[in-house]
Amino acid sequence: MKKHTTAFAILSALFLGSAIAEEQTICPMMVDTEIDKSDEGFVEYKGVTVWMCCGSCTSGWEDAPDYYLKVALEMDLLPQFADQKEALEEELKDIELMAQRFCPLRPESVISPKSAFVEYEGKKIYFFKERDIERRWAPDPAAKFAEARAAGLLPQFDEAPAAE
Predict the structure, then answer these.
(1) Long-range contacts made by residues 76-83, C-beta under 8 angstroms, separation at least 24?
(2) pTM of the model
(3) Which of 47, 122, 134, 147 is 20 to 30 Å from 17 by CA-CA measure?
(4) Can you tell me whether residue 152 is helix, strand or coil?
């Protein structure tokens, strides 16, 4: 009996260990922030729970869930979708990802085409929080632009102009 119990314990530990390794740990919106499952920051996507670090991320996700899922899949942030990844990528193939992925003022925060933006040198720059535009961008846009561009956060300014 003891052999079976020991074997069961080892198999359980291996199974549980791999299940734990496959759990989501990072917010798909603020990619440098760990999630807290004791918090109520989560959304459901096709019956699967996606944990967020805060209410701002939950609200942002709800504005463009398919877009954010496509970005999160590209960045391998949501292991709970690993077994569905190919099917989801096929389903989301018509969603075109923007060159800019992150906010220039909050570089850990993912943006979407529905995020607040400003026009700068003829191109859109997207922000995670609309209030940052007035508070942090507007006082010195040239300096903030230079910082963000140097950090590689504005790849749309590195793209060649479209041929006519």
Answers:
(1) 77/24, 77/26, 77/28, 77/31, 78/24, 78/28, 78/50, 79/22, 79/23, 79/24, 80/22, 80/23, 80/24, 80/48, 80/49, 80/50, 81/48, 82/22
(2) 0.81
(3) 47
(4) coil
Give yes or no for a contact between 71 and 101, defined as CB atoms under 8 angstroms apart.
yes
| Residue range 6-64, pLDDT digits in tens | 333 333 333 443 344 478 999 999 999 999 787 778 999 999 999 999 988 999 999 99
Q: Are 92 and 115 in contact (CB under 8 A)?
A: no
Residue type present at position 110: V
What's the token pair of residue 91?
């389903």
Pairing mode of beta strands 48-51, 42-45: antiparallel
Residue the block writes with tokens 């199974």: 15
Pairwise CA distance, residues 68 & 73, whole Å: 9
